[in-house]
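Quick board copy: two proteins, each given as sequence then tokens.
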Amino acid sequence: MLSHNPIESKNPSFTTKEQEEPARPSEPYRVIGRGACGTIFDQTGFGSAFKHATNPSPDELWNDCTVHVAVAEALGSLDLQIQVPVCHYFVLAIDSEWWDSHLEKFPTRFQIPSHVLCTERIHPLPSVVRNALIDLYCPTEKRSSAKDDDANKDCLVRLYLGKRRTSGAPSRFFTLRNMILHLDQMEFLELDVHYYAQLMADTLAVIHWKARFDGRDIEFVLGSAPATVRHRLDRHDFTDNKGLAHSTWKKSMNITSFTNPMVHLWVLDFNQCRRLSMDDAGIELAVEAFFLNDPYYPRPATGMYRDEELWRVFLDHYLQRSYDVIDKGGEGDEEIEVSMPERFIERVVERQQERMMGRAENRGG
């Protein structure tokens, strides 16, 4: 049986072999993940992740970088337990100086200069947790090979507080990379789902009313981190080129420590985030993003007691954090009406009720 303590604890200390390996400058980069925006690499011992852009235009990855920094600063100004990877630097595809010293470290098929975003790497969950998850959720005949699969060492867990499984049968296509834990699984593991709902609510409120973005396609994952991190970019690093995309890697400092890593809930991936206007149109953008995202947030109007209870926890913390943020003022010159967070929640409930009615009609038809 999986003990939930290593995951649930806010700051458990553990050490794993893969996190103890020393930095080796000549070590090639290896793939640790893929997404629509790009392919993610790391280099053993350095604690950095490199997002190698898919799009030949720098705009999407530059948006990822600038929103990332703005959100990190907004969250970092408050006493919250949510973690944001440190944003180290951005590299343009035409930056020959950086690419001349890094190109050959990428696998052959990626040895074509592209735009790169370098951030702190979110380290995987410890091996004892990974093996327990395999024992619980991997088909019996595949468990041994799953434990030996190097790809499963890159284990981050996405928490879907807004979705339950329709079947408890193990998936035939099991992987620990970006593994999903649904609400029913978290309840079975006795994870503190109310705590995670509070963290997500606080985070979304700060993104909406302090950083002033819609939160479109952001992700929440469980992963670990070293006790200390490297240099982080701030917004002043973006003023050199009138806000246009430019390389910033020379501003970064190399400081690495992997002692006493801890498990945290992280928020990441800001490439699709859009600026919120402080009006009804901005509220609609935020509502659209809420439902377009994977179901990290609890859902209202489900008709299930525990789900409704979890939604109320999310609702209460979202509104309280929103009012606190509005009272202190957010980023930008636009005034925020104190009613806007509540109007956002009302629209989320209305949209969810419409979705539930549509599903009922489809089943009835």
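And the next:
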Amino acid sequence: MGSLESEDPLTYALAQNRAWAQHTATAKPTFFPTLSSGQHPPILWLGCSDSRVPETTITGLQPGDIFVHRNIANILPPTDLNSAAVIEYAVAHVGVQHIVVCGHTSCGGCIAALGNDRIGVIDAWLLPLRKLRAGLTREMEGLPKEERVQRLVEANVKAGVRTLRENPNVIKAVGDRGVKVHGLVYDIKTGELKELEVEDEEGEGVRREAFGVQ
């Protein structure tokens, strides 16, 4: 067997897939038939597209355990139909119990937002990060680059949690089923996840009234 470095990457990936499928079918005969009958993941994961943060791998879970949406820098604009559709489907139809927003150290999107270079179409996508950066200007003044990136990473995750708390589907699920919203940061250097504390200044009752949730 070759390696990703010595062979065509896709050819190698397909060979690895066949080997994994055969091994899994032999070791766990009911695994694929069970998956094919439907999905009931307890977790919705809203993360970054970065190749170093594969949610199932870093949590030690299996296919079928996590419903996933990933984009550049795990940004959650309230008006983004892509993420909004995923959130609605996962919460209202799949019935997840936990919603996770996960950022990570050394995030390329946060690094770009801290710089002033123009990249291309992604500049528009990074505008929410630049707005967060502006609000952190005094707090980050004099800090080394790595620490400034980390502050922005954490601020972005917290912003995502607040956006979720104001989503009507999430508000209803929190009140009706006790769904929980979490903000996590993955440390690429250690492989560990850290949960952030995100203050809830408004409270569920205020949000249910403000957003018209019965």
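Board note added afterward: Residues 71 and 112 are 15 Å apart (CA to CA).
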